Amino acid sequence: MKVCGIELKANNIIFSIIESINNEYNYIDTQIKKISLVDDENQKNIIKFKLQVEKFISQNLIEKIIIKKRAKKGNFAGGALTFKIESIIQLNSLCEVIFISSQAISRFSKSNNIIFPQKLNKYQEQAYLASVAYLW
Question: CA 82, 99, 45 angle in degrees (round to 5)?
Fold first, then answer.
């Protein structure tokens, strides 16, 4: 099974793809590691962004998307744009979208010795943890 962990930050979707085969988890290093939404008030840009997301899902044969949840209110609340991006991802017709809480990721990280793949960029770590925590 191929899952794509996602962290939403500002106007970016940050990706990390993990393939699970016989209880072994392999990071897949893709050329595209993030997609940015530019000018979210322009309908053409929203449509282009949605098509980019669907193309990424299709080209990488993603079976599930795991999104790291963000708070909806309070000091650490996600920005409005991240929730707009989240909706665009959920509207894809190619794969299931699941959410994982920061607490679940934190519990997983504390109870497991996480070794990040060498080719994983620092900014992808939370997306990676979301996908691995889900698969575990």
Answer: 30
- Residues with Cβ within 8 Å of 24's Cβ and at least 6 positions away in sequence, in order, are none
Contact 60, 4 (CB under 8 A): yes
Domain boundary assignment for the chain: 2-135
Assigned CATH topology for domain 2-135:
Nucleotidyltransferase; domain 5 (3.30.420)
Rounded to an integer, what distance in angstroms lies between the CA atom of residue 82 and that of residue 7?
Answer: 10
Residues 6+ apart with CB under 8 A from 14: 6, 7, 8, 33, 34, 123, 124, 126, 127
Q: What's the rounded Cα separation, in Å, for the pair 97 and 32?
A: 19
Per-residue pLDDT of 26-85, as tens digits, reads: 999 999 999 999 999 999 999 999 999 999 999 999 999 999 998 787 766 678 899 999
Q: Model pTM?
A: 0.93
